[in-house]
Specification:
With 278 residues, the protein is mainly alpha-helical. The chain contains 16 helices and no strands. The protein folds into two domains: 52 residues, no CATH class; 217 residues, MetI-like fold.
Length: 278
């Protein structure tokens, strides 16, 4: 038994090191958010606040109205995710079940993923002109449209893989009973795709929540700023407000963390099935 544990010691040590590498930044952000301004700059830094304070959170919630930017990010991220699901689910279903040639399907999937991998600034100018011509600059809905560059390709990929792993027999039985393709998709396929849809939805929310460049370019009104833009404002040319920067990081992480914990079992199942034949 001891020899077995000793043989696995390097593995356990590597896992602990990886865990510490992942968790330490989160720990340090939380600790820093409760430190006073003078303690943040103290050297060497203390592992725990010597004089804990919530003044940074009070300023964020009070004077800065940080909750407004969280609402902006949440509404835009959720809107972008819902649009991606509404467009991605039929697209994935069409590629898998509508008799699309496999070669075309593969080329299409590679193409949309290639577009997703392009640097965001490459697509920023065409998107800016498109939103300006549609009168959607400085609007949340315009940002939802722009975020499809990030969210839609992954939604199609995940749902395509999920659908490829689903048996066709249930759908064929529905056709025998007289159901149309639309009825089969909405009443049979869509409920069976629920884990994949939830996984794609959560990933789309995460991608949109963390986006910075398009929110900075396409939104001009401070009242419509997202969390990423307002957090960047705490880094000035001659000063960095470490306390509010750390506090805003904690507050902006909590909604996504709670959402992830709540639906993690659906996400794991959706990603597992979505990766089988994607």
């Amino acid at each position: 038994m001891i020899a077995k544990l000793l043989s696995r010691a390097p593995l356990y040590a590597a896992l602990l090191l990886a865990l510490a590498w992942t968790v330490f930044p989160l720990y340090w952000i939380v600790v820093t958010s409760f430190k006073s301004e003078w303690e943040v700059l103290k050297w060497p830094p203390s592992p725990l606040p010597e004089d804990p304070t919530i003044v940074h959170y009070a300023r964020l919630i009070g004077a800065d109205r940080f909750y407004q930017y969280i609402f902006n990010s949440f509404s835009v991220s959720l809107g972008a995710a819902l649009v991606s699901i509404l467009l991605g689910a039929p697209a994935a279903y069409g590629l898998v079940r509508a008799g699309v040639p496999p070669k075309f399907s593969s080329v299409f999937l590679v193409w949309i993923l290639t577009v997703r991998m392009l640097p965001p600034i490459v697509i920023a100018v065409p998107l800016f002109e498109l939103l300006r011509s549609m009168g959607l600059l400085d609007t949340r809905f315009g940002l939802v449209i722009a975020y499809q560059v990030y969210t839609l390709p992954y939604a199609i990929w995940i749902l395509h893989g999920f659908l490829s792993a689903m048996p066709k027999e249930v759908e064929e039985a529905a056709y025998v009973d007289g159901a149309t393709r639309l009825q089969t998709f909405t009443k049979i396929v869509a409920p069976m795709m629920a884990p994949g849809i939830i996984a794609a939805l959560l990933l789309s929310v995460l991608f949109a929540w963390n986006e910075f460049l398009y929110a900075l370019i396409f939104i001009n009104s401070p009242s419509k700023y997202t969390v990423t833009v307002i957090v960047a404002n705490y880094i000035q040319e001659f000063e960095i407000d470490w306390g509010r920067l750390a506090g805003s990081g904690v507050l902006s992480t909590l909604p996504i963390l709670v959402l992830s914990v709540y639906i993690q079992r659906y996400m794991i199942r959706g990603l597992a099935f979505g990766g089988i034949k994607a």
